[in-house]
Amino acid sequence: MRKLIPLLLLLLIAGAMVFVLFHNKAEVDRKANNAQAATVTPVSVMTARKQTVDSSYTRTSTIVADNEVSVVAQASGKVVAVYADVGSRLNAGAPLFKIDDAVLRSKLASARTAYDVARKEWERAVRLHQEQVISDSDLESCEETFQSSKANYNAAQQDYNDATITAPVRGVVTERAVALGATVSSGTVVATLIDDSAYKITVNVGEQEAFKLKTGDAVKIETDVYPGVALSGRIRSISGKSDAVHTFPVEVQIVNDKTHPLKSGIFGKVTFHLGTLRDALVIPREALVGSVKEPRIYVAEHGVAKLRDIVVGAEVDAKLVVTAGLSENEPVIVSGQENLRDNAAIKVIHMK
């Protein structure tokens, strides 16, 4: 009996502690609920309406020259002359560098002499063959010698011409990799040129948008360099294969505008026109809670905010086209939702 008394005391103490804890928790919850009930968040709402909107799709990427060429030396030797620098504008065939051609010039002269001799011998052999002085085999031998010397002469001429490195296309020099006195080898990249008459920009579009576009479609391009100026371009190609995240590369060609000239490497924002949507349920972008990938909004219902999952079909300027999760004429909270939670008390102070 004496052993049971301490045990009963312990049980009574434990029970009392549990009772106190639950009582305190209930009191805290009651006060919190009262405080929450007393908190009313002022909000602005707008009525969801159906509209006719022009659907567009915007993506940003880097504008680059439509044609960029690396100029490669075809001959080896010391650079003895530099005719252009970074920023120089050249026509196709204009000289860029000159490599020491003394040896090549000597080889060309020797090949020219051998060619002239072989040509004269072959012309003489043709006359003698016509007069039946020499045989067919003698004529063929002279012709082989002539053709061989001709090939050697053409090769020597090409090697000599290669000593002058020229611009392969019309354009602007954007990089000069060698200087006067440098020694280059055949295959060395000595300069880079871009054709600045046209530029291009490649952006990745979603699979839904890719099937609404076609080559030749006109697009709008904007840059931070020219605020408020819309440049024009056209879709040149749409990839037939998506990448790992199911987007399709679309290449847009931009004709360089002399009034607003472009440079390779600047950012551009491309806007594609996807058509006109009629009877589209539209809400402002500011009503969205979270991201477009997981869109949610708050709808005002009888003095409380109801968190709602929606499906966004398109984004048009600062508007979202809702395809599911919202009905016409429902009041959407567009301001004051930053501190809301589901079922929070609200007071509508402005109706748009």
From TrEMBL:
- What GO CC annotations are associated with the protein? efflux pump complex
Give residue ranges for domain Multidrug resistance protein MdtA-like barrel-sandwich hybrid: 67-192
Q: Which Gene3D superfamilies match?
A: 2.40.30.170, 2.40.420.20, 2.40.50.100, Helix hairpin bin
Entry-linked InterPro entries: Beta-barrel_RND_2, MdtA-like_BSH, RND_pump_MFP, YknX-like_C
Report the GO molecular function annotations: efflux transmembrane transporter activity
Pfam families, alphabetically? Beta-barrel_RND_2, BSH_RND, YknX_C
Please report which protein family the annotation says this sequence is part of: Belongs to the membrane fusion protein (MFP) (TC 8.A.1) family.
Q: What is this protein called?
A: RND family efflux transporter MFP subunit
Q: Which organism is it from?
A: Hydrogenispora ethanolica
